[in-house]
Amino acid sequence: MLKPANLTEAILKVCPIDGIDCKGDTLVRIRFLPSATEQQKAAAHAVAKAFDWNSPTAEELKREEIKALVLADGTYTAAEMTKVLNYVAKRALGLNA
User: Fold this and answer.
1) Can you give the residue range of the structural domain that contains 77?
2) Quick one: 38 and 67 in the same domain?
3) What's the number of CA atoms in the CB half-sphere (13 Å) around residue 31?
4) 74 and 41, same structural domain?
């Protein structure tokens, strides 16, 4: 599941953390590093509170974009076809697409 990873990245932009603990789509705990200030902790809590679990991840957006290209009328630009092939190749190799 990518959502906790996205939340972790968002929190790391405002506060040093060791990670987060989630249960499904619920944040259970933020594991702050000792160097985190109270102001940074407050910012981390604000980011967590504002996090939208329903918004699509970058991976989900990319998948929908590729799906739209594949389901299009069958005419592709070279750039579009390159994007599709790169995505498929990376997924097949287990790389982040």
Assistant:
1) 58-92
2) no
3) 6
4) no
